[in-house]
User: Fold this.
Amino acid sequence: MTSLARVPCTIVTGFLGSGKTTLIRHVLANANGRRLAVIVNEFGDVGIDGEILKGCGDAACPDENIVELANGCLCCTVADEFVPALDAILAREPAVEHIVIETSGLALPKPLVQAFHWPAIKSRVTVDGVVAVVDGAALADGQVTGDLDALARQRAADSALDHDDPIEEVFEDQIACADLVVLNKRDLLDEAGLDRARATVSSALPRAVSVVTVADGKVDPAALLGLGIGTENDIDNRATHHDLELEHDHDDFDSFVVTLPEIADPDSLTARIAALAEDKNILRVKGFVAVAGKPMRLLVQAVGARVSHYYDRPWGASEARAGNLVVIGLKGLDRDGVTKTLLG
Assistant:
């Protein structure tokens, strides 16, 4: 395959709860016949993001074109995970026309873009562009994600803590590599809040990059796919906090899965999740639950204390009506306490 025939890949990065999966779901549902594939790299043990995406792309992106990689950070598992995933996608018939890669919310995009120089990759695919999705509502509140008041109090009380918060560094590294920034959750912002969010993004951008403002991840796919940047050819010019590190890790974060039996009251569950964000340094909760007497599966998503839920599809005849929630927070999570609260 010549370089002219390389398949474009859009890398969608963004911090926990920014709305990456919602944005990609919208792209798949509005692909207008373009044949797409998605690689989902999750932080957690259950394929929640892949499950949310499956079934929404119809013929444009059949379920077999959605590949989930949950065994580690994509840029750390290029040979074992990423290359085989690309091999499988590029072998599809009819041929895939565009690949969308959803990174983990904790991912540093620069090492992943640099992986496109690998001999097994560079002749077949190119980075069409890096899209950073940011949580406008959080930025308006002076945070990079959800409700981090507890973290702010912890930092203020401990003079030994470094002033550079690792969470903020991840956010800034994602912004530093972006070719397009999607400022999401516009519907939760007044004009003053929007101005604050825009100012935060602008202060993190090292160069001129377009910023689009949307609600519910509803970006026109034509504005997202087809940027034609070839980001891998410029990535070494994009300075990040981790440029001098030979390796990187996610030691500041922890995740685990809670399995739930059928619940009777979704509102009670969401209230407990919101309380956990205040009490236990929970950054993100995402997953599915079964509601007694309801044939539809309930999707639950929480960013800090903001919790949403909706019925996304019927339970399959062969599926066990049990819920799984991925919980992500700062290292040292009280797993037993969180589990007890979620189980009610």
Q: What stands out?
A: The longest strand covers residues 125-135. The chain has twelve helices and twelve strands. The CA atoms of residues 176 and 206 lie 6 Å apart.
